[in-house]
Amino acid sequence: MNQDNKNFFQKVYEVAKHIPYGRVTSYGAIAKYLGAARSARMVGWAMNGAGSMPEVPAHRVVNKIGLLTGKHHFDGTNLMQQLLESEGIQVIDNQIQDFETHFWDPFVELGGE
């Protein structure tokens, strides 16, 4: 991994650490906050590697419509869903219910850069 990607991944992890309990954000929202709006996929790659970092709540990052697209990167078939449900978020068919209610926008919450 080149240094730029490593630094970008670190920035992604720093944003993810701010996502409050019981809230979720999207790959695209993190990318936009970091000034790289077209890099949602790269945010996803960063989250894929976050499983070994318990301080990064990767389970709280989903796609733009609330689908648990990263769930296969967690140990156990339904671990991502179980973690979200333990925080009071209802998930049906791999999709967060009332997504707008639970959505946490880093641009709003952390202030635009």
Walk me through what this model shows.
With 113 residues, the protein is mostly helical. The chain is built from six helices and four strands, in the order αβααβαββαα. The chain has helices spanning 3-16, 27-33, 40-48, 79-86, 99-102, 106-109, and strands at 25-26, 61-62, 91-92, 95-96. It has a two-stranded parallel sheet. A two-stranded antiparallel sheet has the order 3-4. Strand 3 (91-92) and strand 4 (95-96) form a beta hairpin.
Helix and strand arrangement:
Elements lengths: L2 H14 L8 E2 H7 L6 H9 L12 E2 L16 H8 L4 E2 L2 E2 L2 H4 L3 H4 L4
Parallel strand pairs: 1-2
Antiparallel strand pairs: 3-4
Question: Can I get a quick summary?
Answer:
With 113 residues, the chain is mostly helical. Helix content is 41%, strand content 7%. The chain has helices at 3-16, 27-33, 40-48, 79-86, 99-102, 106-109, and strands spanning 25-26, 61-62, 91-92, 95-96.
Largest sheet, described in full? 2 strands, parallel
Q: Give the end-to-end Cα distance, rounded to a whole number of Å.
A: 26 Å
Q: What's the order of the H and E elements? A: HEHHEHEEHH
Strand order within the widest beta sheet: 1-2
Task: State the shape.
Answer: globular
Counting DSSP E segments of at least 2 residues, the number of strands comes to 4
Q: How much strand content do the residues show?
A: 5-15%
Structural class: mainly alpha
Rg, Cα atoms, Å = 13 Å
Mean pLDDT figure: 92
Helical fraction: 40-55%
Assembly classification: single chain
So how many helices?
6
Poorly predicted runs of 5 or more residues: none
